[in-house]
Write a structure and sequence with these properties.
Bound molecules: ligand C2E, calcium ion
CATH class of the domain at 113-272: Alpha Beta
Strand order of the largest sheet: 9-10-12-13-14-15-16-17
CATH architecture of the domain at 113-272: 2-Layer Sandwich
Structural class: alpha/beta
CATH topology of the domain at 113-272: Alpha-Beta Plaits
Number of helices: 22
Distance between the termini: 72 Å
CATH superfamily of the domain at 113-272: Reverse transcriptase/Diguanylate cyclase domain
Strand content: 15-25%
Helix content: 40-55%
Shape: elongated
Radius of gyration: 38 Å
Length: 561
């Protein structure tokens, strides 16, 4: 029944002009009324004559007048019937137009309001709440990873989930609340609450999250779903009204809060705060900067040394992207990679960086490997492996020297696809490492069944080894796991000798980290390699002492793999 809301909103505010004029089309009624007046006029003289003629049988009535009388009656009947027809027609048209209005105002799948009508609905509720001294909260809802449900189970299932979800939300909202589907998997609702009591909104939203945590039971599948919500009110926390705000700015702010919730890791909600607006502005600047920087070649590869812990030899480099922004300076991938992923530029960025890295690494000694980080986004492309292999051929770079690092989050997306990609890359000699191991949720089964060549222990665990007295149980456990699965290991984030010492005691490992120096650009790497005699094209190999950190420089040339 709630779908009638749409009609209410529109009829309240937009009287239908065509129907009004049709209503006023009183020609037919006018004819009938004129005929009645004529009848009264002519009838006044004709009727007595006619009656007299009937009674006396001698005087004849004036035929002309009688004809006029009959014509009058016919006109009355005609006029009246036409009038009746017209009003019925108008009634039907009005109903049809109302139906059309409801359809135009609602989402056909879920019967919620749609984006267009939600603006009016919000203004409407705000006006009514304001009259009572109440506040309203506008809540923007977005389902997390809904696309995957559509992809995995088909759109029919996806649609069914959306309908069920709307029913759930609707059942929990107060009566005068309005619920809209803004499009796809994005919803919004607006509710009134007593100004200054925003915790009522929190309560409702928390209950919504609890309800959403219950799986959706469909005939063939059970679907689990999470959502993110951004909320904004037309009153501040103390209950003061923000008079300048309108429905459009409420929507915009709720959207920013939603975006924030998504960025904080989804499945949560946030109230809008002004800081979010600045954050978003900054982000938009970054976005523009990234787009431009990409065409101007501002993204460059830096390299971090990878060392064999036992021998201390340099065995390769991990390529770490950097943005040399003329405006902002040297920017970390932790800032720009997520944005590049979001705006769909990660593949392009990665391929440009790879091209540069292949060219750099080709000059290095053949024994040195090159590790490259691959975003989960890139792995969603079924042609990823083919593209990479093509690039290797074009760059004339031996696949045996390449290692790609993927994180555990890649494994959630589409394990079948990832498996076949890994397999085809490995068939060509490319090695695959599981990066940041321990921070995600890969199962032992995945570890066992996916053909990884190496595990990289996340630096958050390695950092534990720094405290001398502390037990390094986690790193030891991961090392034991690696040994059990016959997988070589790399420890990331080695910052000091203490840690290195602890690692050495654990057997054969690779290590990388600030202990060996900060990641550096191609030129610095060339110098380093040249000094170590690991740059075959260069003739000058007379400066071996500049290699790596003093503690390992002597062994750097022994290069055991
Ligand atoms: P990661 O793969 O875990 O890379 C290691 C990060 O730890 C690097 O940060 C590195 O500079 C830093 N690091 C190295 N040694 C130490 C240490 O001893 N202590 C501490 N505290 N940190 C250390 P960076 O370069 O900022 O990279 C951050 C992340 O960005 C990387 O994490 C990687 O996941 C991602 N990334 C970097 N380059 C690329 C790229 O080309 N493509 C993609 N998709 N992701 C990249
Ligand atoms: Ca990495
Ligand atoms: Ca890592």
């Amino acid at each position: 029944m709630r779908h009638l809301h749409g009609a209410q909103i529109l009829t309240d505010h937009e009287p239908d002009i065509r129907l009004e004029t049709a209503d006023r089309d009183i020609i037919a009624l006018g004819i009938a009324i004129a005929a009645i007046i004529l009848l009264v006029g002519t009838g006044g003289s004709v009727l007595p004559q006619a009656v007299g003629a009937l009674l006396s049988h001698n005087s004849k009535p004036d035929m002309l007048l009688v004809n006029a009388l009959l014509l009058n009656i016919a006109l009355i009947i005609f006029g009246w019937r036409r009038y009746r027809e017209l009003t019925r027609e108008i009634g039907e048209r009005r109903k049809a137009e109302q139906r059309a209005q409801v359809l135009a105002a609602t989402d056909p799948l879920t019967q919620c309001l749609n984006r267009r009508s939600m603006v009016a609905a919000t203004e409407d509720l705000r006006a009514r709440a304001a009259a009572r001294g109440d506040a309203i909260a506008y809540c923007m809802v977005d389902l997390d990873n809904f696309k995957q449900i559509n992809d995995m189970h088909g759109h029919t299932t996806g649609d069914a989930v959306l309908v069920m979800l709307c029913d759930r939300v609707r059942a929990m909202l107060p009566n005068d609340a309005r619920l809209a589907r803004l499009g796809g998997d994005e919803f919004a609702f607006v509710i009134a609450y007593p100004a200054g009591n925003a915790e009522r909104v929190d309560d409702l939203v928390i209950r919504l999250f609890e309800r959403m945590a219950q799986p959706f039971q469909l005939p063939e599948v059970t679907i689990e779903l999470t959502m993110s919500i951004g909320i904004v009110a037309d009153h501040d926390a103390t209950g003061n009204v923000d008079a300048s705000i309108d429905a459009a700015s409420l929507m915009h702010r709720a959207d920013m809060a939603l975006y924030h919730a998504k960025k904080q890791g989804r499945n949560r909600y946030f109230w809008f705060e002004t800081g979010m607006e600045h954050e978003l502005k900054f982000r938009n600047q970054l976005e523009v900067g990234i787009r431009q920087g990409l065409t101007k070649g501002e993204f460059v590869p830096f390299y971090e040394q990878q060392i064999d812990v036992q021998s201390g030899a340099l065995v390769g480099f991990e390529m770490l992207a950097r943005w040399r922004s003329p405006k902002l300076g040297l920017i970390s991938p932790e800032i720009f990679v997520p944005i590049a992923e979001e705006i769909g530029l990660i593949t392009e960025m990665s391929e440009k960086l790879m091209e540069l890295a292949f060219a750099d690494a080709r000059e290095w000694d053949d024994s040195l490997t090159l590790s490259i980080n691959i975003s989960p986004m890139q792995l969603r492309d079924p042609w990823f492996a083919q593209r990479l292999l093509k690039r290797l051929v074009e760059a004339n770079f031996p696949p045996q020297r390449l290692e790609i690092e993927i994180t555990e989050s890649c494994l959630h997306d589409n394990i079948g696809l990832v498996r076949s990609m890994i397999t085809s890359l490995r068939n060509q000699g490319v090695q695959i490492s599981l990066d940041d191991f321990g921070t995600g949720y890969s199962s032992l089964e995945q570890l066992r069944s996916l053909p990884f060549d190496r595990i990289k222990i996340d630096r958050s665990f390695v950092a534990e080894l720094r405290e001398p007295g502390r037990k390094s149980t986690l790193v030891e456990a991961i090392v034991a796991l690696g040994r059990g699965l016959d997988l070589p290991l790399t420890a990331e984030g080695v910052e000091d000798e203490e840690t290195l010492k602890a690692l050495k005691a654990m057997g054969r490992l690779k290590a990388q980290g600030y202990l060996y120096g900060q990641p550096e650009d191609a030129e610095a790497v060339r110098k380093r390699l040249k000094a170590a005699g690991l740059l075959p094209g260069a003739t000058d190999t007379t400066l071996p002492t500049e290699v790596a950190q003093p503690a390992h420089s002597a062994q750097a040339r022994s290069r055991s793999a």
